[in-house]
Amino acid sequence: MKKIALSLTILLGALSASNATAFDGDVNAGKEKSATCAACHGPDGNAPVNIYPKLAGQHADYIYKQLTELKSGMTSGGKEGRMDPVMSAMAMPLNDQDMKDLAAYFSSLNMSEGATPKDVVDVGAMLYKAGDAERDIPACAACHGPRGNGSSLAKFPKISFQHPEYIKSQLEKFRDGVRHNDLNGMMQDIATKLTDKDIEVLSKYLGGLH
């Protein structure tokens, strides 16, 4: 918990010290460049296959960060950034402006709504909003907000309405150390404390979080 609190303090201090760099992606250019993305993420940014993330409505800064780090994952052989066999290869030919344009385009779209199964509402809400002090698990809402909208400046992603299957896979990757491009290892630290049941409940809860 101390590690997470320190990370947030450092982050908030940096954000208050200087404004984030103006995002200069071009929505129209991004739309033209998004044709190859549509196969997995859908023409409207709402992935038709639930193992792929919805990009519509996601923060442009976050999408840009992930694309740059996916490319870095490939060029460094997985030692840096974020390595994904499919997406790292897709990011390789993209230049910096391509990434900004794609990020601007997908962030301009509307994410489709999801639903939360009734049997996970109570447990999911408690874990998301309050965490679990006995297990030193902080509230997810502390970073991602009460409605799961995240933060553009902090580059915390919008996670509400995301496919539960995708969220589940990413939490498992953070827990296993397969994905390690999170700020100061915050998500890895949290995920290692989550049980399979915790991950299942949170993933389903977020699918319909308003």
Describe the protein's architecture and organization.
The protein is mainly α. The protein is built from eleven helices and no strands. It folds into two domains: 27-108, Cytochrome c-like domain (Cytochrome Bc1 Complex, Chain D, domain 2), CATH 1.10.760; 118-207, Cytochrome Bc1 Complex, Chain D, domain 2, CATH 1.10.760. 50% of the residues lie in helices and 0% in strands. α2 packs across α6 (96-107), α4 runs antiparallel to α6 (96-107) and α7 (121-130) packs across α11 (196-207). It is globular and about 45 Å long. Heme c 1 binds at residues 37, 40-41, 87.
The coarse silhouette is globular
The second-level CATH architecture of the largest domain is Orthogonal Bundle
> What is the CATH H-level superfamily of the largest domain?
Cytochrome c-like domain
The oligomeric state of the chains shown is: single chain
State the helicity in percent bands.
40-55%
Topology diagram in text:
Elements: H1 2-17, H2 27-33, H3 38-41, H4 60-75, H5 87-91, H6 96-107, H7 121-130, H8 141-144, H9 164-176, H10 186-191, H11 196-207
Helix pairs in contact: 2-6, 4-6, 7-11, 9-11
Keywords: Electron transport, Heme, Iron, Metal-binding, Periplasm, Signal, Transport
Binding site for heme c 2: 140, 143-144, 187
Pfam families: Cytochrom_C (PF00034)
Kindly summarize this structure in a few lines.
With 210 residues, this protein is an all-alpha fold.
